[in-house]
Amino acid sequence: MLIKISERYKPFTHQVGHKCCLPRTSLVFEIFPTKINVSDISKKDPLQIAALTNNLEAPVSNFLVQQDLEKGCIRVEGAAKNGFFRYIIHSSQEGDGYFIESKVPMEWEGNTGTLSSYPSCKIERLHLGVTKKQDWDLVLRRGVIAEILPFWFLLGQLTPKYESLSEEESLLTTCMNRVQSKEHDKICSTLNDVFVAGFSGLLVPNLEDSCYRGYAQPPIVADSPLALLSAGSSLIRSLFFLENSSEELSILPSLPPEFPSGRLIGLQVSDGSVIDIEWSKKTLRRMVFYARSSEKKSFVFQPKIKSYRLRMSQEKKESQRFKVGDALEFEAGCKYYFDNFQL
Q1: Measured between alpha carbons, how far is 307 from 130 in angstroms, rounded to an integer?
Q2: Which of 138, 218, 228, 261 is the most exposed place for a label (fewest CB within 10 A)?
């Protein structure tokens, strides 16, 4: 009954000069075959901090820029007159720098950084049933919010936190208000407006409608465009999970109708416990709870769910039925399997 997501999030583009964020940093890279412009977007106004050039010779073909959200890096490759090239842009351990690791010999002008490792972090992974090719130009053309949100959600977790939002109205605050007021049928359309107005390139956030699409409100009002990634990721998470208190957890509290099925794994509870969930036909189907402490908790499921089955082993048939809202005693280090949800 383990719940897994086999999809690996590595969006890519063949466009020359496409901008993309480097995970775990506040840096944006504008990548051309022979040049890279590096900007810092930790403030309202982007600041260019470096311009790197290399020794590639035209013509350049099969140019590819891939944002690897699994390993937190940017991969670039292609073929030039003087040979095939491939390099990886990593974040430095300090979180405010970068280094370039070339897979084949390349000559660079400019500081490409010092090789170091960045500590891995626990991430939560979302999948909403879309498994199409991750060519970002095609993703944007399709414009399916269920396809876009898992990338936004994951990159937001790999971005420095800038969630000090202004009280001024914005598309993001409008979406937050609709989540709080349980306007489930309007959440996705507003999230789509935030995405269309607030992002350019390969998930690069902006404080304004940079393409002048006619939105009356800005996508977000904050001190840094990065707030759109981190605050947006938190908003996406709240659709599927809320920690009402240390003893009460809500599962799928604001599920939009546009997401009839999906999975969310690795949910980190404040006490260190972990939750994996799967739903289909707009209803919770399975849940696994990994207890990290011995304490009492209760789960709030969708209003239509009245009871469920609870087991402590996948193999054993022994189980108990509980009504929604019943407090449960959990033992540290044990796994608990929830299924057979009855309406």
Answers
A1: 30
A2: 138
- Give the span between the Cα atoms of 6 and 131, in whole angstroms: 10
Question: Quick one: which H or E segment has residue 171?
Answer: helix 171-180
For every one of its 343 residues, what pLDDT tens digit does the chain have, with 9 covering 90 and above?
Answer: 689 999 999 999 999 999 999 999 999 999 999 999 999 999 988 999 999 999 999 999 999 999 999 999 999 999 999 899 999 999 876 555 788 888 777 888 877 665 554 556 689 999 999 999 999 999 999 999 999 999 999 999 998 877 666 678 899 999 999 999 999 999 999 999 999 999 999 999 999 988 888 999 999 999 899 999 999 999 999 999 999 988 899 999 999 999 999 999 999 999 999 999 999 999 999 999 999 989 899 999 999 999 999 998 766 667 889 998 888 999 999 999 999 999 8
Q: Is the dihedral of CA 208, 210, 215, 219 positive or negative?
A: negative
Helix, strand, or coil (residue 289): strand
Residue 101 tokens read as: 């690791």
Q: Under 8 Å CB-to-CB from 49, ≥6 apart: which residues?
A: 27, 38, 39, 40
Grouping H, G, I as helix, E, B as strand and the rest as coil, residue 173 is: helix
The maximal CA–CA distance of the chain, rounded, in angstroms, is 69
Give yes or no for a contact between 153 and 126, defined as CB atoms under 8 angstroms apart. Answer: yes
